[in-house]
């Protein structure tokens, strides 16, 4: 796995669009192997019996509960805990370079591809979210939401932003401090915003107005790993994370202990409602009503 990541990182760090595309494909292939069941994966087949994949069809996805017994996933997770092999850490500079080369359709496709991979890495390795506690990385996402970018890039960025903030109150506070909520609501009020982007913005507001999961500072932090590189400490999430159950431990990275308390790291729904109401007066109550009535995202945020 280290050899494959080394090749991918070499391509991602180049200044050649063709090599960057190849690096993104290599990372995508690695994540696909982790997320998809092989034809001989008897455990997955027993847990979720499905018909064999037909020619041209993708193999079935692995059930998250099965990952605990997957040596490849365990090795992947272990590698992501360190700075040297962390994929998100390598994708962010590549994304920044692609954005600087913007205005070209081929680079837009690569930007969307890189954002999709960042989403996948953050979901498979939640501790990597600590990278977005840094203003430079959060600002990169906020820049990509701006109307100067194509709708596909805007939509992919909004999804990535949701993943980066999910169960990460410290990242949400960074987002707010950088006037991210002003950016989102300004675009929401723009009548010329494409329909698909407006829909994603509405979804983001639904997400933002849901209760936050408190975080507890790690008791025995050590100053290494991606958390230290990201400028924040590893956090023990209270949410009933499936990945935590898989490993029998918290989803955290080694890093410095955070000085902030739970109460200062999280905000109540009422407080966030007041924030949104500053920019979208009269809209918040309807958003909360819709959230309670229609239960978007399958009700998992309710």
Automatic annotation (TrEMBL):
Keyword Cell cycle among UniProt keywords: yes
Biased composition (Gly residues): 222-235
Domain of life: Eukaryota
Amino acid composition bias (Basic and acidic residues), ranges on this chain: 52-61
Entry-linked InterPro entries: Cell_div_Cdc14
Region ranges (Disordered): 41-61, 218-267
Record-level GO BP terms: cell division
Keywords noted in UniProt: Cell cycle, Cell division
Pfam families per record: CDC14
Keyword Cell division: yes
Protein name: Cell division protein Cdc14
Organism, scientific name: Podospora appendiculata
């Amino acid at each position: 796995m280290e050899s494959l990541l080394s090749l991918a990182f070499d391509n991602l760090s180049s200044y050649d669009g063709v090599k960057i595309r190849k690096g993104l494909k290599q990372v995508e292939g690695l994540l696909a192997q982790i997320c998809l069941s092989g034809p001989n994966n008897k455990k997955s087949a027993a847990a979720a019996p499905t018909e064999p994949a037909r020619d041209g069809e993708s193999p079935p996805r692995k059930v998250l509960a099965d990952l605990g017994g997957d040596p490849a996933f365990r090795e992947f997770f272990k590698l992501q805990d360190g700075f040297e092999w962390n994929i998100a850490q390598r994708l962010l500079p590549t994304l920044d370079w692609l954005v600087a080369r913007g205005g070209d359709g081929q680079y837009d496709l690569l930007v969307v591809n890189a954002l999709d991979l960042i989403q996948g890495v953050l979901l498979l390795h939640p501790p990597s979210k600590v990278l977005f506690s840094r203003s430079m990385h959060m600002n990169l996402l906020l820049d990509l939401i701006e109307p100067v970018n194509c709708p596909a890039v805007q939509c992919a960025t909004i999804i990535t932003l949701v993943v980066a903030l999910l169960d990460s109150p410290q990242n949400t506070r960074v987002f707010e401090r950088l006037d991210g909520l002003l950016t989102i609501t300004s675009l929401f009020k723009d009548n010329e915003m494409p329909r698909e982007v407006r829909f994603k913005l509405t979804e983001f507001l639904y997400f933002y107005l849901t209760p936050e999961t408190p975080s507890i500072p790690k008791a025995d932090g050590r100053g290494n790993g991606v958390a230290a590189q990201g400028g924040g400490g590893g956090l023990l999430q209270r949410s009933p994370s499936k990945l935590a159950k898989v490993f029998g431990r918290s989803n955290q990275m080694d890093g410095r202990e955070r000085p902030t308390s739970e109460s200062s790291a999280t905000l109540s729904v009422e407080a966030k409602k007041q924030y949104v109401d500053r920019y979208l007066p009269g809209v918040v109550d309807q958003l909360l009503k819709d959230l309670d009535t229609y239960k978007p995202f399958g009700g998992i945020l309710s």
